[in-house]
Amino acid sequence: MNKDQVKGVGEQVKGKVNEAVGKATDNPGKELKGDLQQGAGKVQKGYGDAKEDAKDDAKRNTP
C-alpha cells in the first residue's frame, strides 16, 4: 500500500464523517463537503491503486 492509497482512504473516511455530521445537524454545506471529500478520496486511492499495479507489473516483467 502506498501513501496515495492511505491518504485516499483517509479522505473518504473524513468525508463520511462530515456527511454524517451534516445530515445530523441539518447542515447541507457540511454534507456537501463530505460528499466532495469522499469523491476526492476515491480519486486519490484510484491513483494509488494504479501506481501499485504498475509497480507490480514491472516486477513481474523484470527478468
UniProtKB/TrEMBL annotation:
Domain CsbD-like: 4-56
Pfam families: CsbD
SUPFAM superfamilies assigned to the protein according to its UniProt record, in alphabetical order: Hypothetical protein YjbJ
InterPro entries xref list: CsbD, YjbJ_sf
Disordered, as annotated region: 1-63
Annotated Basic and acidic residues bias: 48-63
Family per similarity comment: Belongs to the UPF0337 (CsbD) family.
Protein name (record): CsbD family protein
Lineage, top ranks: Bacteria, Pseudomonadati, Pseudomonadota, Betaproteobacteria, Burkholderiales
